[in-house]
Design goal:
The protein is of the alpha/beta class. The protein has three domains: 2-96, Udp-n-acetylmuramoylalanyl-d-glutamate--2,6- Diaminopimelate Ligase, Chain: A, domain 1, CATH 3.40.1390.10; 99-322, UDP-N-acetylmuramoyl-L-alanine:D-glutamate ligase; 331-484, Protein-Tyrosine Phosphatase, Chain A (Alpha-Beta Complex), CATH 3.90.190. An eleven-stranded mixed beta sheet has the order 11-10-9-12-8-13-14-15-16-17-18, sandwiched between helices. Residues 110-305 form the Mur ligase central domain.
Amino acid sequence: MKLLKDILFGVSLTAVSGTTNCSVNAVCFDSRKVRIDDVFVAIKGTLTDGHKYIRKAIDLGAKAIICEQLPKEMVNEITYVEVANSNSALAIMASNYHGNPSKNLKLIGVTGTNGKTTVTSLLYQLFKKAGFKVGLLSTIKIMVDSTEYKTTHTTPDALVINKHLSLMNDAGVEFCFMEVSSHGIHQKRTEGLVFEGAIFTNLSHDHLDYHKSFAEYRDTKKILFDNLPKKAFALTNIDDKNGLVMLQNTSAKKYTYALNNYADYRAQILENQFNGQLLKVDDNELWTKLIGHFNAYNMLAIYATADLLGLEKLETLRWLSELDNVDGRFQYYISKQKITAIVDYAHTPDALKNVLETINTLRTGNENVITVVGCGGDRDRSKRPVMGNIAGEMSNKVIFTSDNPRTESPSEIILQMEAGVAPQHVNKILAIENREQAIKTACQLAAANDIILVAGKGHETYQETNGKRVDFDDFKIVTEVLQSLNK
Ligand SMILES: CC(=O)N[C@H]1[C@@H](OP(=O)(O)OP(=O)(O)OC[C@H]2O[C@@H](n3ccc(=O)[nH]c3=O)[C@H](O)[C@@H]2O)O[C@H](CO)[C@@H](O)[C@@H]1O[C@H](C)C(=O)N[C@@H](C)C(=O)N[C@H](CCC(=O)O)C(=O)O
Ligand SMILES: Nc1ncnc2c1ncn2[C@@H]1O[C@H](COP(=O)(O)OP(=O)(O)OP(=O)(O)O)[C@@H](O)[C@H]1O
Ligand SMILES: N[C@H](CCC[C@H](N)C(=O)O)C(=O)O
Ligand SMILES: [Mg+2]
């Protein structure tokens, strides 16, 4: 049990009814999960309003209510606290509840449209190699040093974040690398966290269903930098046209990285092959197993971060050369007949273009590139025709299929992708709703030396339709099918 007034420390209160000098059990923002003596935080969400469930929370045992508007009828013995913003209150309360764990380690946030999982996961790997105890909060998993936890979000809610940071404190973790999504910033899941540094990877089309405009999406990402403390570092990619925007209002120490512009950290691609690329970083050569122009940026961001956190440069380069690809990011299998199957989490236009560009630069003859791709349901619709067109333009054959249709009709999503394909590429397109069948067809169509790209789901091990998730693993399916076809 903890004192409510201690948990509320730093929260901006606008009215209080009852006492805050009372003990509460846990903080909870979902009435369905309230237990006896909890404090319930009512949040206005995207689908419903938590204020509607205040009474239900009390019936289940909530002792205190945090809300943006006090209810008309108040129950005796219950403490009601009105706050300016429930999301902010929840984040600060979550941090207080767990003893402000972000202050006891060096927390680095990574934001940007693409590359967050890659950069955070590789920083985690690198700092482990350097002998530190490390934490990771990523799309794929949460790591408390060597202990793995499952996650549901790229940036989980404030309670989940702080709970795991607190476990990291218990385990003696010194550095934690976390993905900071635009949803996470907008819903204030990261408020109240003390960052040692923040990294910006890039900004391109995504989530325009949620953010309404590109400017709003960009400005949301910028908040991570605006809120950094003075002693923190702000590291940005200035080859991206929004790179400098991130630094405009930060009081942190500013650093830049780039391949094409003058910057504090610079790299050059010397060689690019299927099994790796050679980079020149700070006059030293670095061989990395991760390929593609975009991974040169990721590598450089990691190198710069390691330097800013005090690691020795030459040692960092050695460790960087040992790092392996992250699951579902350019993960490949080469079959008997030298058909290459690549599984990649490219689910944005820019990522799809980058991956296909990388594949095309690696082609040595007239091998065909066969792309299997879909777009998520209940997510940004405007990226569908754009991704459809990129796939059509940059591949020899394309199979449009389903990628987590959620509550939407898979065939409708495919039609929207097809609508973007330029007329001269329409004859390359097939539509096969069933993703397994789509992958099988790609394997059947592939001849020796061809390249199959299965894009959009990467590490995911499910297909989600109407709220139900069934097991589905692109990499497993494509390798098994190629083997069974004896190709
Ligand atoms: C659109 C979105 O981001 N929604 C997130 C949001 O839920 P919401 O605002 O829709 O909540 P709501 O259903 O309207 O409910 C409002 C409030 O009423 C409460 N409630 C509701 C019902 C009830 O009976 N009782 C009750 O108390 C809810 O607990 C909530 O507090 O807050 C929830 C709690 O934190 C999140 O789980 C949920 O993520 C949903 C599941 C989601 O799919 N989010 C994705 C889009 C997302 O966040 N993705 C990002 C970025 C991806 C990337 O680019 O990497 C991520 O960080 O994962
Ligand atoms: N620096 C980069 N620039 C552009 N594209 C990238 C970059 N890094 C990775 N990608 C592409 O984007 C895909 C997703 O990469 P990653 O998972 O690292 O991004 P993310 O930002 O974590 O995505 P999410 O928003 O889903 O969490 C990769 O599979 C690859 O195709
Ligand atoms: N982080 C991304 C994941 C998309 C992955 C794709 N497979 C899908 O389900 O749409 C998002 O929330 O938009
Ligand atoms: Mg991610």
